[in-house]
Amino acid sequence: MLLKIPREGHMWCMLEFVSIGYVSNELLLLNRVWKHQQVMFISVSDVLYAAGKNVDMKYFTQRQAEEKWSTLRFPNDQPPWNDFKL
Q1: What is the dihedral sign for C-alpha 67, 72, 73, 77?
Q2: For the chain, what percentages of helix, strand and coil (3-state, to nearest 5) are there?
Q3: Which of 66, 65, 68 has its CA nearest to residue 77?
């Protein structure tokens, strides 16, 4: 499935992590966390607070397995708590 950025102002979260300086091993951990959290894009309307500078704190807490935060299908990853610290 080809996935496109849904709306203007949305950004691919992993590309943003690369642009701010995260490196390969960190990107692997971040990808595992963001897949678990069911996040592909960063946007003010979804993941960031209204000012657009800080991530909504709910994304720093591990999503419960029965919760669905996206309509997209994601793998059932269970990253360890240490991955969330990054």
Answers
A1: negative
A2: 35, 5, 60
A3: 65
- Do the beta carbons of residue 6 and residue 41 sit within 8 Å? yes
Query: How far apart (Å, rounded) are the C-alpha atoms in residues 6 and 63?
Result: 23
Dihedral through CA 62, CA 66, CA 68, CA 72, nearest 10? 100
Closest CA to 37 of 3, 84, 4: 84
**CA 34 – CA 11 distance, rounded (Å):** 14
pTM of the entire predicted model: 0.66
> For 33-54, how does the pLDDT look when each residue is reduced to its tens digit (9 = 90+)?
888 888 877 765 566 555 566 6
CA distance 39 to 62: 12
CA–CA separation, 28 vs 14, rounded Å? 10
Tell me the backbone φ, ψ of residue 40, rounded to 5 degrees. Answer: -115, -30
Enclosing H/E stretch for 11: strand 11-12
